[in-house]
Amino acid sequence: MRQAMPRISQKFALYTFFSAFAALVNFGSRFLYDMIPGVHFLVAVTLAYLTGMVVNFISSKWLVFDSGQSGRTRREAVKFLFIAILGLFVTVIVSAIALWILKQSTMGQFLVKWITTSADFADPRPTIAHALGMLAGLLANFVGHEFLSFKETGIWDRILEYRNRSRSGDEQ
Description:
Elements (H helix, E strand, L loop, with lengths): L3 H31 L6 H24 L8 H32 L1 H13 L6 H25 L5 H17 L1
């Protein structure tokens, strides 16, 4: 048990480092998606998340979880996508709740007044809400990828077995 904890801590630090780059892609691309006329805040957050997810998969597979030569890229991508979709829900839900709280709270109103009067910035609440959602998503994703995405869990084999059984049942 003593050895497992430092290994997970090191892996989490490495995951966090490479996820920071993916998060920068996520965070920065939201501003690009916001420039598209008619794109709602939560749609921009979702598109930004998916953009960062591609960067995260590549770095996670080959650099963090040392799974580059596993020969299981397709099954890892499917599991990664599943975990990432759960992480997306966490990110979007936390972002939406944080934005609602910031818009309703005195603290949120204080932040708007303080930041927008001290500099020529737009309303900071969507950016703060998005950052909080991304932090929650980072934690959810690491746990899922550590224990599912890049492990031989047998889930993929069970899915294929179920699919094959249901196909052979259709032929009868």
